[in-house]
Amino acid sequence: MIIKAIIFDVDGTLADTEDGHRKSFNKAFAESGLNWNWDVPLYDKLLKVTGGKERIKHFVKTCQPDFNMPADYDGFVKKLHALKTLHYTDMLGKGDIPLRPGIRQLIDDAQRNGIRLAIATTTTPENVTALLRQGFGINGENIFEVIGSGDIVPHKKPAPDIYFWVLDKMGLPATDCIALEDSENGLRSSLAAGIKTFITTNRYTSAQNFSGAAAVFDDLSDINHFYHVSGLPQSRA
Ligand code: XBP
Ligand code: MG
Asked: Known catalytic residue: 90?
């Protein structure tokens, strides 16, 4: 297989973002007068639901049986989530969440080798923009020829929709691409789209089930090992 494109997940893959998301949710709850607090063990469980708005609704359903739902519940969740996004992008803008080891090098090498780059994520588009600008500079978004994010597809990961959307925009078959993911939900999504997938784990995902992955790594700090295992060309001088 000659790899023509790499499709990247964002949260947990490009950067270790989930704790930043968690703290931003908590800030939005406090500012909205809600006494909800998502600690690490709870967030670990809530992460099985992808998408922030969907996660808030799942939390209300499973952990807040006495919550007095406002008449416009969807509007309430949307507003709460928009506040969370403000806090999260502010955190990214301050440079509090760096890229994970090896990511910068992988992207530089891929560009040098003519490998196409794309993103497939469930996170909100503003979050992707803020992360890419912080991690790769003001033109960070231009590195990726296709960015699939947020509510652009009807079903978020583990459904394959976002990967199908990205493949369609790139005009490539799944067999020409590899995906890089950090979570079981992400892996189920990319595999269901027929894409060979590599995993880098983090504190929230390391105990998850990665059956079907091409290989699992702690991170990409040994980038040449990753190139060897994945079949990507080695760095050029
Ligand atoms: C991770 C997610 C996201 C973030 C929160 O997705 O599930 O929902 O936790 O982001 P991925 P939002 O790893 O596919 O990027 O609050 O913007 O949804
Ligand atoms: Mg992820």
From this structure: no
Successive 10-residue mean pLDDT values, the chain, 237 residues: 96 97 98 97 96 98 96 98 98 95 97 97 97 94 96 97 98 98 98 98 96 98 97 80
Ligand 1 contact via 148 beta carbon (within 6 Å) = no
Nearest CA to ligand 1 atom 4: 123
Query: Partners of 37 in the beta sheet?
Result: none
Calculate the dihedral angle through the C-alpha atoms of 79, 83, 84, 87, rounding to the nearest 10 degrees: 170
**Apex 138 CA angle, 136 and 141, nearest 5:** 65
Check: pTM over 0.85? Answer yes or no.
yes
Nearest to 3 by CA among 148, 141, 109, 121: 109
Q: Which ligand is nearest to the CA of 44?
A: 1
